[in-house]
Amino acid sequence: MTALEFGYRLNSLRVFLKPYAYRLTRDNDEANDLLQETVLKAFSNREKFSEGTNIKAWLYTIMKNTFITNYQKKVRQKTFVDKTDNDHYINSSKHTIENGAYGNFKMKDIKRSIKKLDDNYKIPFMMHYKGYKYYEIAEHLNVPIGTVKNRIHLARKELKEMLQVYRTV
């Protein structure tokens, strides 16, 4: 197959490759870049394509592998390892370490506030907090799903008022 024929086949298959590129990247510009890079790699490696095999599958494989390689490069670029000595931070007052006591106080206050809630609000709120879905809570309490949503909303609202001391500006 000549380079011209191969280029024509590649161009005719771009229509099928574009949606796959978009599915991988979830961004139109990145999908266009991936498509262009795939076509370029396929064309520059056209001698590796075996005549009579499925060219579309070959192109999909190139695209998938290119996407994975690019993704791995991005992950490596975002990884930063600092190997310098940070001894100058030891006596710095800007950098403090919290011991978690403040968080413990918050948690105790939150639990105390939840205990103060009326059972009609506390039970659905705690079930939702533990991971139950609205419909599961509604079935368990034998109330409509709208009632469950309303009670959870009111419990959050009441807790927000009780814990206003922790509100950040």
From TrEMBL:
Keyword check for DNA repair, yes or no: no
Concerning InterPro entries, the annotation shows: RNA_pol_sigma-70-like, RNA_pol_sigma-70_dom, RNA_pol_sigma70_r2, RNA_pol_sigma70_r4_t2, RNA_pol_sigma_r2, RNA_pol_sigma_r3/r4-like, WH-like_DNA-bd_sf
Q: Which UniProt keywords apply?
A: Sigma factor, Transcription, Transcription regulation
UniProt domain RNA polymerase sigma factor 70 region 4 type: residue ranges: 110-159
Give one GO molecular function term: DNA binding
Q: Which GO terms describe its biological process?
A: DNA-templated transcription initiation
Which intervals hold domain RNA polymerase sigma-70 region?
A: 14-76
Keyword Lipid biosynthesis in annotation: no
Q: Do you know which NCBIfam families this protein is assigned to?
A: sigma70-ECF (TIGR02937)
Concerning its family, UniProt says: Belongs to the sigma-70 factor family. ECF subfamily.
**Name assigned to this protein:** RNA polymerase subunit sigma
What is the native source organism of this protein? Mangrovivirga cuniculi
The beginning of the lineage is: Bacteria, Pseudomonadati, Bacteroidota, Cytophagia, Cytophagales
